Amino acid sequence: MAKAKEVTMKTSIKYHQDDPWRLSEATFDPAHLGKYEAIFALGNGYLGTRAATEEANTGEVRNTFVAGTFDRLNEDEVTELPNLPDVFQVALVFNGQRLDLNQGKVLDYERSLNLKTGELSRHFIWRFGRNRYRITTSRFVSLARRHVMGQRIEVTALDGDATLKLSAGINGQVTNTGTQHFNDDVKRLYPHHILQLTTKTNESQVNFAITTQHRLSVPDDRLGYVKTEMLRRRLRATYTLPLTKDDPLTFESITTVYTSRDLDVAYKDRASLRRQGYQAALALEKMNFRQLLTESAAAWADKLWTPMPLEIDTDHARDQLAINFARYHLQIMTPGHDSRMNVAAKGLSGEGYKGHTFWDTEIFLLPYFIFSQPEVARSLVTYRYLGLHGARTKAADNGYRGAQYPWEAAWVDDGESTPVWGATDIVTGEATKIWSGFIEQHITADVAYGVEQYMRATDDEEFARTRGNEIIIDTARFWCSRLEWNPDVDRYEINNVVGPDEYKEHANNNAFTNHMAHWNLLQAMQLIDRLKTNEPAEYQRLDERLDLAALRPEIEERLGKLYLPAPNAEAIIPEDDAYLTLPTIDLKPYLTAGRVGALFDDYNLEQVNHLQVTKQADVILLLFLFERHFSKRVKLKNWQYYEPRTTHDSSLSLLTHTNFAADLGLKRKAYSYYRRARDIDMGTNMNSSDEGIHAASIAGIWSMTVLGFGGVRYLDGRLRIEPNLPDQWRQLSFCLWWHGQKLAVTETNQTLKIRNLTGTRVVEIDHAGASVEIPTHDEVLITR
Ligand code: BGC
């Protein structure tokens, strides 16, 4: 079959038709530094670093983060993830001329991220005057050793001998877009070219030790004068090196980062961290850059690619690239090692959203981890357990009972972390108030939804008993106190909220919110009943803490009278009380503008509030999550109604539309939405990722592949598999975890094959309306 070609705009991004593990920048693109910094980010869930180039460039954003090390500038600001001192910028000066790719000529350029090994490499020839220099670089953040990152630069003079001045070090003169989070630096130089900076965040007082060792291919006795400088917030070593024509010279730096928040660091005071960093540098001396990189590449294979293969048989190479890209990023963005932290909306790849966690985790990211890495999913839901204190404080502050989860969460104890003021209103010229932290309340039910899904998909009874049950019940307790009785119509309502469609502020009875709250209440009631009958000791424990005896009848009463927006005569579920009465506008110009937020060139948020315009999947998401509660007719009608009114101004929207269209059998629509969603970060929109990649949308690439097209779904405690492959794919194969069993699934549009690899338990799945058993260590082949 002929290879299918994707129509690509002319950009510097290069996709390799024959290599689904490589993504490249084909020519140096100084106008789009942010794109590559984010999509080529490196990390391991603990450390994350943007791919700023070795040489400094105007407009670069040089970020390195350690997950969970939040700091707050002052009372007026919310907490954010501080940007660490940088170790990757290296100045190269050839015969007095500083390497600058905007000068001279750049030949044979390519920068590539190898998604399989986590290596970022770059090569080019720089011609300045009559001289050409070949520069080859490589960089990684170790997946095998959480605290370690490495960099290698190889330089060759091609046209004659030259002198190279190379300056590298630790640069603490970094900020989060101007905000300085560190103080109290201590700088140290040790023998063997080891440089160290210890520093501390201003408010949260997190200690950091950053230690870097420089290794040069020139022996020390030939190094000559090495200039080391301790500048104000900066340590730098400058090496003056003779370059002999055609004889490559290498510079390597191996860096470790330790902080006082690390669970694997025993002594967290400054002096101990300093010692830890120094000793680690000495211990690492026995390995060179290549060995450390090889070890890290092996960890990628061992942890991810070998145990959880995922292959698409297709001529559309970009689809396989996308799933590799997605799983690579999901791995580097997720702090699965420490349940006091969670995934940030931009991962560890940018300052956008300040490192905060949203409902993105439970609704969009968690399914990937539940089905692929249940131990990481456990850590993510444990984070919400640890956040109960903050959630209870938020509820109490607002006059409610139970646990009300923050819309934006940071450090577990912080509670609500959403900023109060946002962008400038184009009409009033004043800062726009961000209401989400006050009234985007569906997050509380979303958290319960994620926790319940985790518990039932994994059968992790220990988690349920020690953490999960309490979350389900205390979130329901919040809803009991939150519902408002409307005596005019004899029902409970939820008024003055922001739903997933954040273009409707102060909405009454947002359908998604009401249904999710109802689901939360129902889960809690059923759980209380189950515990009472089957686990009296657990019932009693929770009864003592949460007064289940009184709560149970209260929930039942609320459940009976909570208003659930239902399909009207035309089968449309009103997004909220007002939505269907609002005027419509011609959205076409904004939908075809090809950028997010185009609508706001002409309208302000207040005006959009009064239009039938939806930011992202809202009713559609409700129908997707609760597919068994609504008829196919209702789903289709609502699709037809809401799809043309949705701007997809949130990156969470397209993926839900893909999955829902796939469920509805709208194959062409589904694939076309898929391609748009797939390309949010990886595609040719060169500014979309400036502030960091879109974590939920990247998880969406997996979700569209396995849940949407693969037809895998968690539904009311059961696993359903109903393949729905696009015509562009011949076969999809993947592994997934269910009830502690690993299943290998192979799908075509005619067949479904499932093998139980773990084989300690029979697994039951739903398929084509029937239940199918997969015996232990056996395979079931279904012809469709
Ligand atoms: C979306 C939210 C989302 C947040 C972080 C916003 O633009 O509307 O639903 O949680 O981004 O990704």
From TrEMBL:
Residues 325-702 form the Glycoside hydrolase family 65 central catalytic domain. GO terms for biological process: carbohydrate metabolic process. Substrate binds at W359, D360, K615, Q616. Belongs to the glycosyl hydrolase 65 family. The keyword NAD does not apply. Residues 25-261 form the Glycoside hydrolase family 65 N-terminal domain. The keyword Transferase applies. This is Trehalose maltose hydrolase, phosphorylase. It comes from the Bacteria. Keywords: Glycosyltransferase, Hydrolase, Transferase. The active site is at E502. Residues 713-773 form the Glycoside hydrolase family 65 C-terminal domain. Transmembrane segments: none annotated. One of its GO terms (molecular function) is hydrolase activity, hydrolyzing O-glycosyl compounds.
